[in-house]
Amino acid sequence: MLTIDIITLLPELLLSPFDHSIIKRARQQKLLEINLIDLRLYGIGKHKQLDDYQYGGGAGMVLMVEPIHKCIIDLQSRNNYDAIIYLTPDGKTLNQGTANHLSTHQRIMLLCGHYKGIDHRIREHLVTHEISIGDYVLSGGETAAIVLVDALGRLLPGVLNDESSALSDSFQDNLLAPPVYSRPSEYNGWTVPDVLLSGHDAKIEQWRAEQSLQRTKDLRPDLLED
Ligand code: ADE
Fold first, then answer.
1. 126 in ligand 1 pocket by Cβ < 6 Å?
2. Secondary structure tally for the chain: helices H, strands E
3. Which of 211, 206, 225, 226 is nearest to 170 (CA)?
4. At the N or C end, where does the chain have fewer CB atoms within 10 A?
5. Which of the listed CATH numbers 1.10.1270.20, 3.40.50.150, 1.10.287.3510, 3.40.50.2000 matches domain 168-225?
6. Among 87, 90, 110, 115, which residue has the most ligand 1 atoms within 8 Å of its CB, making it the best to mutate?
7. Which pLDDT tens digit goes with each residue over 94-142?
8. Nearest CA to ligand 1 atom 2
9. In this structure, what DSSP letter does residue 113 have?
10. pLDDT attached to residue 163
11. Is pLDDT at 197 greater than 90 in this prediction?
């Protein structure tokens, strides 16, 4: 069972994405729990202020240290966290290895940023991991959190019908997955490779291994260098 607590300015944005398909089933099966925490509840003063100008000047507002700190210590007073993850474009780029590792935890916290980012003291003193989902800038951490939750949820034991199917995903062994085909064997003059119709398991396995390697060489040679 993995519990993911997500601190966000936009809890409504995160309602639907976790209510479909594999992630929905994982939650129904009690293999995954997702809690949305509205940062606004920890805002300062009558207006529940969350952001302010940055010291030193410059465009863009910064999420203030106090509301985030209060939110995190409130959660920590009730739960133990294996990781407190800030989603940010200058974090470590997410890959399958990191997803595999994080999926073995019991409880993690995700912190979604906005505007110019968060007061750096939160990153210095409270955050344990900083993760980016790629070298581009999103308008907030929420869409990155959706990606991370999806990547973790499908790895939890029992979530996928056939447990081996997560293991045969692209990237699990630093190789891209082989091509797949389904019926009919000929459509519009387009055919399926003969070997897949042969019923010869060993040959099929060998073909898939060769295809994986060839596709990785052609499309993502960088994966073979690691
Ligand atoms: N927040 C904004 N851009 C992001 C990115 N690329 N990855 C994670 N969080 C982000």
1. no
2. 9, 9
3. 211
4. C
5. 1.10.1270.20
6. 87
7. 999 999 999 999 999 999 998 889 999 999 999 999 999 999 999 999 9
8. 138
9. -
10. 54
11. yes
